[in-house]
Amino acid sequence: MRLLQRIPDTYFLVYKPIVELRKASMEAETILIGPFGIEIIYELNLLRGTKIYPMHEKSWYKEQEGAYSKILSPMIALKQS
Q1: pTM here?
Q2: Sign of torsion over alpha carbons 55, 57, 59, 62
Q3: Would you write out the chain's pLDDT as a tens digit for each of its 81 residues?
Q4: What's the rounded Cα separation, in Å, for the pair 28 and 13?
Q5: End-to-end alpha-carbon separation of the chain, Å?
């Protein structure tokens, strides 16, 4: 909710729109349309203090409480949006 309070009135936020492409529906990422361009926002749901290390095009690493684990790169989902 705080994000919406910080966005000026000249911007339009589309939260998780359902788009139809070639007779198939899909959910896209959040889109922020402004006077100078369009931004696609991908939300990572991680615990506070988690560190992210982008390593490869398809996978990233996250460090949470000293333990490392591999996660799928959000860039893949952004390219599909």
Answers
A1: 0.64
A2: positive
A3: 566 778 888 999 888 889 888 888 888 888 889 999 988 888 888 888 899 888 877 888 889 888 888 888 877 766 665
A4: 13
A5: 23
